[in-house]
Specification:
The complex is a heterodimer of chains A (175) and B (611). Chain A contains 9 helices and no strands. Chain A is mainly alpha-helical and 175 residues long. Chain A has one domain. The longest helix of chain B has 60 residues. The interface between A and B is medium-sized, with 29 and 20 residues.
Chain lengths: 175, 611
């Protein structure tokens, strides 16, 4: 709980001014990929490594993951149909077969309709997702942040015991 | 780049490696032991398991597989074993083992601790196919023991025909008496029918009326015509009486020929009583099959059960295979896997090659190969084959080959086993008390073949015991049968036994033959079968005595009464026929008379008219 609170606080701070819009947008698209595709997939291990080694905002990764997990739950039948359509495309059969017969590619389970459908959807969404998030962060800082900080939810959050514990821990750790 | 992140990943990787290095072997060892114990039905223990993920090898120091029938012994145990498995199939939860090298295989070893394993609830194996094998073993055992052991050992007890007859409840005398009563009552009924029929009286009265017609004194044609009419009426009456008499005769004949009063069953009743007495006496039918089954049946069944155990194990796992292990259940939102080739169509377990070495319980060093043990032969497209053999300095040789093939629609299994040159000195060739003598010397050869297609099996076991010399000791044979067998085997230096067990033509057929059969049969025919025949004759004559002359008396009585009634019937019939003839004759006489009178009258009229 403390960890989630930490990242929410960090996210709020980052949204305010601390992190660059690129880091936030990067976190957003990586979180989106993890959220939209089946969690226990090999490609998500790669995404997780990228999250750890790249300077993306982890709070944004978590937020995007939570939001897109919910969306993915509803959109799975669409991913299944989309993945099925892709796997049955005549022109792609040679590629799919070669990939299937290669053990490394086969471990990615690309031959599963939902894995392929959701991953391709997520990758496609990354293209507009990254610049849009970047613009969104800038606009947020300009017009919305002040108002968010004054909302009752944020005030209540700041007034909670957990938040004060978190603040104390941060002070002790010298942050 | 986040440096702390990279450091974190490195730390995690090192930790995972260390943890798996320290604990993965024991965890896997426990899991394998648990699963294997469930499959075996008794404890399976592995010592010193070592899994080398980098070289893709598994090794262990010792494996013990407890015998579920006797948990203080192992079905087999192995020494060092090393196997190579493929990496990629493990990703799909498949275990494909390319090569296994298994040393120090020992069969049927003793355990230091009890290997009992309680199978957790819900983990029991239905094991339907192994049930078939158990059924076959049970049927063969039952067939052999019923046909031979029981009957043949009973002959040794002295047969007391008197006490047997005292217990025997003969039914034939009672049935014959009852039949006689029934026949008697029936004849009385027919006596009474003939006595009270009334036909006699009516015939007599008609006869009287016919005789009373005096044709010669008739002068008037009108009277002749009236008499003719009377005779015709009487003839009709006679016809009716004739039909009546014939009806009575027919009824009588039908009654006599009915099954109810048939004496044809008497022999059957006597036969049934005789058979009942023979059953109680348990007199054996002495033939070669009975003797061979008595002496060698038990050993052969034990061996046969041993061969069938292999089939049971194979069928057990074969039946699991047929359940379609890879049938994929598509959960909602889990999507569907497309297959672009059959590259990953592996069975759950496939051990491609096992090279084993060890020794049998009788200390023959053996070595061999088992190939393509798999949980689904349709995926490997290869049957299980095994070829194990060995030889020792003392010229003992053992060979076991076979194939378990589940590729077709019907499972087929074939096992061939041979074991030659083993010494029989100091052993008994039969557990039967009919042949209790150990051997001073002798060598044995065994060959067996079992072939099963679905539930049809065809098997043959051949024993050959050569250079035999029995140690009869100083004890005298107990009973004549033992004496005869002793005499027979003392002259034979070689005994060959063959068992043919099959159900190819439908019901189970067990045939056990030996070259001693003829010797036994000849000797038995001279003595034991003479006794048996005497006992049989005694029983037969006792049964006949009790039945006495009932049958003959009844037949004589029936014959006499039948003749008597037939005579009465014939007399009645003759009498009716006589009167009918008389009526016919009288009618003709009257018609002639009538014509004469009419002619006379016509002549008179002509004379008067003046023609």
């Amino acid at each position: 709980m403390l960890l989630i609170l930490k990242y929410i606080a960090k996210l709020l701070k980052a949204l305010a001014s601390e992190a660059s819009p690129n880091q936030l947008a990067g976190g957003f698209i990586l979180g989106m990929i993890i959220g939209m595709t089946p969690v226990m997939s090999i490609h998500n291990l790669v995404i997780l490594v990228l999250v750890i080694i790249l300077k993306v905002n982890i709070g944004m990764v978590i937020l995007a993951f939570l939001v897109f997990s919910g969306i993915a739950y509803l959109a799975d039948p669409l991913f299944h149909s989309f993945g099925g359509w892709l796997l049955e495309m005549e022109s792609m059969q040679t590629i799919w077969t070669n990939m299937y017969n290669n053990e490394f590619w086969a471990t990615t389970k690309f031959y599963n309709t939902v894995v392929l459908g959701s991953l391709i959807t997520a990758v496609i969404l990354c293209l507009p997702g990254f610049p849009l998030t970047r613009v969104g962060v800038i606009q947020y800082r300009k017009h919305i942040h002040e108002r968010v900080m004054k909302t009752k939810l944020v005030k209540a959050l700041k007034g909670s015991k957990l938040y004060s514990i978190y603040q104390t821990v941060n002070k002790v750790r010298g942050k | 780049m986040r440096v702390k992140g990279i450091v974190f990943l490195l730390i995690v990787a090192v930790l995972v490696f260390l943890i798996s290095w320290i604990s993965v072997d024991s965890m896997i060892e426990e899991e394998i032991e648990y699963q294997a114990s469930i499959a075996n039905g008794a404890l399976v223990e592995i010592d010193g398991l070592d899994i080398d993920i980098i070289d893709l090898k598994v090794r262990w120091d010792k494996l013990q597989v407890t015998n579920p029938e006797n948990t203080m012994s192992n079905t087999f145990e192995t020494g060092e074993m090393e196997l190579d498995f493929l990496f990629w199939p493990t990703w799909w939860e498949r275990v494909i083992v390319e090569d296994v090298v298994l040393k120090g295989l020992k069969m049927d070893t003793e355990r230091e601790t009890d290997g009992y394993f309680e199978i957790p609830e819900g983990e029991e194996d239905p094991d339907a196919e192994a049930g078939f094998v158990a059924e076959v073993i049970g049927d063969v055992t039952s067939e052999i023991s019923q046909n031979a052991k029981m009957q043949f050992t009973d002959i040794k007890t002295d047969l007391n025909v008197d006490s047997l007859m005292a217990e025997l409840d003969l039914r034939a005398p009672e049935k014959i008496d009852s039949l006689k009563n029934g026949i008697e009552q029936n004849y009385q009924k027919w006596d009474s029918t003939f006595a009270n029929t009334g036909i006699d009286k009516e015939i007599a009265s008609i006869e009287k009326a016919i005789n009373a017609i005096d044709v010669k004194s008739m002068k008037d044609p009108k009277k002749a015509i009236a008499a003719i009419k009377d005779v015709q009426k009487m003839a009709k009456q006679v016809d009716s009486l004739k039909a009546n008499a014939e009806g009575i005769k027919k009824g009588f004949q039908e009654d006599l020929s009915s099954a109810k009063f048939s004496t044809g069953n008497i022999d059957k009743w006597i036969e049934e009583d005789y058979r009942q007495a023979m059953d109680m006496a348990k007199l054996p039918t002495i033939d070669a099959g009975n003797i061979a089954q008595s002496i060698f049946g038990k050993n052969l069944v034990a061996d046969y059960a041993g061969y069938m155990e292999y089939v049971a194990i194979a069928r057990k796992y074969g039946s699991q295979r047929t359940n379609g292990e890879d049938e994929e259940k598509i959960e909602r939102y889990e999507g569907k896997d497309y297959k672009f080739s059959d590259k990953y169509d592996w069975p759950k377990l496939w051990i491609q090659n096992i090279n084993l070495s060890g020794e049998t319980k009788t200390a023959i060093k053996i070595a061999g190969q088992i190939t393509n043990i798999s949980s689904d032969q349709k995926k490997t497209k290869e049957p299980i084959k095994f070829n194990i053999g060995g030889k020792d300095d003392g010229n003992r040789e053992m060979k076991l080959t076979g194939e378990f093939n589940y590729l077709g629609e019907e499972p087929t299994e074939a096992i061939n086993f041979s074991y030659n040159g083993f010494s029989l000195a100091g052993t008994k060739i039969s557990p039967s008390e009919l042949l209790p003598y150990p051997l001073n010397e002798g060598a044995g050869e065994v060959s067996a073949s079992v072939s099963i297609v679905d539930k049809r099996f065809d098997s043959e076991i051949d024993y050959s015991m050569k250079g035999l010399s029995f140690n009869f000791g100083e004890n005298l044979p107990q009973g004549q049968v033992q004496q005869l067998i002793r005499d027979a085997v003392s002259d034979a230096s070689q005994i060959d036994v063959s068992a043919l067990i099959d159900n190819v033509n439908g019901p189970l057929d067990v045939k056990i033959r030996s070259n001693l059969d003829d010797l036994f049969v000849n000797a038995l025919k001279g003595t034991v079968s003479k006794e048996v025949d005497q006992a049989r004759q005694k029983i037969e004559s006792e049964v006949q005595n009790r039945i006495g002359n009932r049958k003959e008396e009844l037949l004589v009585f029936k014959k006499e009464k039948e003749a008597e009634i037939r005579k009465k019937s014939e007399q009645l019939e003759n009498r009716v026929n006589d009167v009918a003839k008389k009526a016919e004759s009288k009618k003709k006489e009257l018609e002639k008379k009538k014509k004469e009178l009419e002619d006379a009258l016509k002549n008179k009229l002509k004379d008067k008219i003046g023609f």
